[in-house]
Specification:
Elements lengths: L5 E4 L19 H8 L2 E4 L1 H4 L4 H10 L5 E5 L2 H6 L6 H11 L6 E7 L9 H10 L6 E4 L10 H13 L2 E2 L2 E2 L11 H9 L15 E5 L4 H7 L1 H12 L5 E5 L6 H15 L20
Parallel strand pairs: 1-2, 1-9, 2-3, 3-4, 4-5, 5-6, 7-8, 8-9
Helix pairs in contact: 6-7, 10-11
InterPro entries: DUF72, UPF0759_sf
Length: 284
Amino acid sequence: MSKRLYVGCAMWTHKAWTGRVAPKNAHERLRFYAGWCNAVEGNTTFYATPTRETVQSWAGQTGEDFRFVVKLPKVITHERRFQGIDADLSQFLHVIEPLGSRVRALWIQLPGSFAPVDLPALEGVLARLPDEHRYAVEVRHPLFFTDGPEARQLEKICGATGTEWVPFDTTAFFAKPPTSDAEREAWERKPRLPRRDRALTEQPVVRYLGRDSNAETEAGWQHWVDVVAGWVREGRTPTFFLHTPDNVDAPALARRFHDEVRTRVPDLEPLPRPEEPQEPGTLF
């Protein structure tokens, strides 16, 4: 059985990708993106739950091997903080049902104000979520990154339900001051936390933020090439999401990361070959 690594970006459509990664036709952009990457962050569901018909269109544009890591709506995680969420959660689970096995995990991103004292709320919701999905939690409170009892408590809660802890590695980005408008915006918005690379499950998920410079982005991910290659050799199936401040070259960079891991793990299954959009132009 061949080994597999999922790679992707924070979105499947970007203005700068038109004519390079995807055509002008908005209804086909996910299909073209799925020729570049085999996974995507489902950030769109954080802001509003889509219609079931919209989600059916996502399934129709992607093959059965494509994976979504779908973010729970912010009304559940940020606004209500798991209190009184039954109706919203039920609606969300119904809406994403057409994705079927394409759902890699349901992603529970928590705000920086979600502290260790709030963990019982997370434990409660994880215990009653349906078993047919995998779950992944992203925390941003600094106390979870001090290698103390707070981290061990979160790991214990995750371990009880087979939930992964998603690190968002921004250390390469924050290694030096910003040099562009996009980097300055990310400097203000992105979390600045220590890097964490401990996998809790067989399907670890990593988010990595590079720089505007592709060379600096690639230099900063070398740690993850080693870690991810090691996970694959162990029989795990990781997912690696590539971010840059402007995300202009993110699909090609995600493929480059996959290529670098594949040089370490030659039996890693290759990515699909991108389909050329109607408009001319290529990345790089």
